[in-house]
Design brief:
Layout: E1 2-3, E2 9-10, E3 15-18, H1 27-55, H2 62-91, E4 95-97, H3 98-131, H4 136-139, H5 142-159, H6 162-168, E5 177-178, H7 185-189, H8 197-231, H9 237-267, H10 275-283, H11 287-299, H12 301-312
Parallel strand pairs: 3-5
Antiparallel strand pairs: 1-2, 3-4
Helix pairs in contact: 1-2, 1-11, 1-12, 2-3, 2-5, 2-11, 3-5, 3-6, 3-8, 3-9, 6-8, 8-9, 9-10, 9-11, 11-12
Organism: Daubentonia madagascariensis
Subcellular location: Membrane
Keywords: G-protein coupled receptor, Membrane, Olfaction, Receptor, Sensory transduction, Transducer, Transmembrane, Transmembrane helix
């Protein structure tokens, strides 16, 4: 409870209500089935990929360990966001507790940044494989993967922690309806009676520092890869090299494109429906998770053969 200067009294809220599509509620009916299918596809495909890499000795290599890490991150992101969204769509279970909301906020920010960082490490892996193939076995080792995993974990766990902490320290009074399907930082903090300038600045600076630096390094790696590939003169070498890193580039391009569209819709929010960024935010947590294992399963011969061997064994 807080007493204001004008004598009015405000009571702090104890939970939030997630109101997905304020201006287009019919979207919930149309999205519930495809979103459910995408969720189960993401869970099943990533589980199959993890089991295949775990059981197939031929896939116990640094590149596939990084792919396993990406699948684990996708599973956590999906489980953090989509079940709650589907519960809202199907059963109108909009309430979410104060602690659960900020926990979801932290996991989303942390694991999204971890996924971006994993893509960066995978781009570096492909850069060494294409540009320095003779040095690849000595640089990209199991120890390298362990160090990369520690870096990914440490960097993003600590740098994203202030986001939910700053939001949780705000004083929430009056309105408790979050105009979003998820507990996005700015959607929640704008309900506060306090000044949210620090929250906005940290979200902006942190986002562009983490994701922005990752994307710059990713595209720098692929620029160097493309330059090296175009210098290859051996017959079929260009096609083989592009095929080797094609899966990575397709997924990174999609990941960065949908993120860029999401940012642009926020910038131009006066020209688009407020429900569009909400929709993109939800889809960004499930579509890449569903696509990642499928693209790798289709385009990577070793994974495809591993899945086929497991199926023959009766898995």
């Amino acid at each position: 409870m807080r007493v204001h200067q004008n004598g009015t009294i405000s009571t702090e809220v104890s939970n939030f209500l997630l109101n997905c599509f304020v201006r287009s509620p019919i979207w919930q009916h149309w999205l519930s089935l495809p979103l459910s299918l995408l969720f189960f596809l993401a869970m099943g495909a990533n589980a199959i990929l993890l089991i295949t890499i775990w059981l197939e000795a031929s896939l116990h290599q640094p590149m596939y360990y990084l792919l396993s890490l990406l699948s684990l991150l996708d599973i956590v992101l999906c489980l953090t966001v989509i079940p709650k969204v589907l519960a809202i769509f199907w059963f109108d279970l909009r309430p979410i507790s104060f602690s659960a909301c900020f926990l979801q906020m932290y996991i989303m920010n942390c694991f999204l940044a971890m996924e971006s960082c994993t893509f960066m490490v995978m781009a570096y892996d492909r850069y060494i494989a294409i540009c320095h193939p003779l040095r690849y076995p000595s640089i990209i080792t199991d120890q390298f993967v362990v160090k990369a995993a520690i870096f990914i974990l440490a960097r993003n766990v600590f740098l994203t922690m202030p986001i939910p902490i700053l939001s949780a320290q705000l004083y929430y009074c009056g309105r408790n309806v979050v105009e979003n399907c998820i507990c996005a930082n700015m959607s929640v903090s704008r309900l506060s009676c306090d000044d949210v300038t620090i929250n906005r600045l940290y979200q902006f600076a942190g986002g562009w520092t983490l994701l922005g630096s990752d994307l710059i390094l990713i595209f720098l790696s692929y620029t160097l890869i493309l330059r090296a590939v175009l210098r290859l003169k051996a017959e079929g070498a260009v096609a083989k090299a592009l095929s080797t890193c094609g899966s990575h580039f397709i997924l990174i391009l999609f990941f960065s494109t949908i993120l860029l569209v999401f940012v642009l819709t926020h910038v131009a929010k006066k020209k688009v429906s407020p429900d569009v960024p909400v929709l993109l935010n939800v889809l960004h947590h499930v579509i890449p998770a569903a696509l990642n294992p499928i693209v790798y399963g289709v385009r990577t011969q070793e994974i495809k053969q591993g899945i086929q061997r497991l199926l023959k064994k009766g898995w």
